[in-house]
Write a structure and sequence with these properties.
Layout lengths: L8 E7 L4 H11 L4 E5 L22 E5 L5 E5 L1 H12 L21 H32 L7 H31 L15 H13 L11 H12 L1 H14 L9
Parallel strand pairs: 1-2
Antiparallel strand pairs: 1-3, 3-4
Helix pairs in contact: 1-2, 1-5, 1-7, 3-4, 3-5, 4-6
Amino acid sequence: MASTEEQPKITLYWLNKSRSQRIVWLLEELKIPYEIKIYKRDQEMRAPPELKEVHPLGKSPVVTVEAPGERRIVLPESGLITEYLIDHFAPQLCPERYPEGNEGKAGAETEAWLRYRYYLHFAEGSLMPPLLITLVSGMIKKAKIPFFIKPITNSVADRIEGFSKPEIQKMYAMLEDELKSAPDGGPWICGKNLTGADIMLSFPLEAGQARTGLTKEKYPKLAAYVESFQKEEGYKRAVQKIIDVDGSYDGLTID
């Protein structure tokens, strides 16, 4: 690995109760220096306008990479951040793409690599949308509104959850089966080694665990999987990192 002086300057623009926490875990797994700039949501759960100075959408996570002699790169979106950082700094977090002797051959990709690429995108593209819908419906139920309107808004929220929760359960069931059939017996989604796909999955699974039926009784493999990544040293260092720089850690929960 290059010396500290030769390494790029990596900065994470971190927002509380956001997907940026899994990027702290990823950065801990890279084992290279990085900085964190802290941002806080307002009372309406919106990101502060200062984040728009980093990226036009004003969302988090965003990572900047400043390599000596090169332009400053701004990376939004968890999936892009994960792929870029792993490509450059942690190839061990990506499974081998081809068996030896089949390099570059379409259809010869390993099961572990195909899972890796799929779950990098599944976490945000499939699992996160119904979780967010459920989060919003929960916010509707807890909103301070006149009591005589409350039954109407609660009814609307229940109808919304009538769509979102079955979708979530369907995905939990698939993940339960995928963990049972993981390459080399698991315990991770792509096999015996932790990958960027596990880090990407950590946020939606942890966020949704409280209120979306992810229980040991119904999904024993999946519940054990969540417990496994919470016990990882890199994960625990990431939580402590936020406590050190922000004073506390409060992950997002769907409640």
